[in-house]
Every structure is written in structure tokens, then in C-alpha cells.
């Protein structure tokens, strides 16, 4: 058996590394959230996100990553913009799918119990963080958005979180 020893270009190396990174990151189990906001015309927008982490409790803040090609990037990419992060329970898989599917864009707020009177928020999410964009950093294909939390709404704390792992939704087993 012979092995191909032809040199690869830096572009091929980067593309291969990106594929390997995506495969590796599929092994990282994550909770699922929906980021929601209003654009400058007052229209509500929402997108599913699993790239979320707390940053600090002084000041209370969190970090979300948004692809620069997503509609949401033009909304939460502005310092001072208001947005919510809605942590999803296992009962919200249909909400997650609607907010992740381009064909469902115009129907996103018809699925689930949304309050769209101000910054949109899912009324039965286990937790909702209402935030203001404090800082935005562009890195590669994504915006790293730091949101300063100004309100937390807690609902049913006994619900099981919606989890995503290896390309699909998974159930969390509590022992």
C-alpha cells in the first residue's frame, strides 16, 4: 500500500483542520438557547444558538457567538442593542428547530409561547436573560457578543434542559 505524499496547500490544510474541528466539537454536549431581538424597524428576530457562556457576575454578563452571515449579526452586532437569551427545556425542540430553519424564519414567533411586546422572550423558558450588548468582537466568521444582563426571568426550574450533541438533540439523564 502506498501513501500519497504530495504536498498540500495552506488552504487545504486550513479546510481540513476546520472539518476536523467541527467533528471534534460535535463531541461537546451543549445546552440549546434562542437569541431574540428586534431590529431597527421593530421587527422581532430569533435564532437558535448553542455557543453561550457566562462571562462574569460583576457585572452580570454572558457571551454569545453569532455567524456574521446571520440576520441576527446586524442586530446584536451593535453596542447598546437589546436582546434576550432564552434557555430551552426539552419541551422546546420544535422552537429550536423553527429558529434554526431558514424556511421557518417568518413563522418563528408563532411556535411557542412568545411575549413580543418588547424584547422578545419565550414565556415558558426555564431561564431568560435580558441583555444589552456591551461589547462586540469580530473573530473569523463570527461575532463574539458580550451582553450585560439587566434582568433574569426564571420559570420552571424542574424542566429538563434541551441538549445537543453529535449533530442531534439528546436527553439529559439525571441520576
Automatic annotation (TrEMBL):
Q: Where is the signal peptide?
A: none
What is the protein name given in its UniProt record? Flavin reductase
Keyword tags? Oxidoreductase
Organism classification: Bacteria, Pseudomonadati, Pseudomonadota, Gammaproteobacteria, Cellvibrionales
Q: Which Pfam families match?
A: Flavin_Reduct
**Start and end of every Flavin reductase like domain?**
25-171
What are the BP-aspect GO terms? pyrimidine nucleobase catabolic process
Native source organism of the sequence: Marinagarivorans cellulosilyticus
**Which GO terms label this protein's molecular function in UniProt?**
FMN binding; riboflavin reductase (NADPH) activity
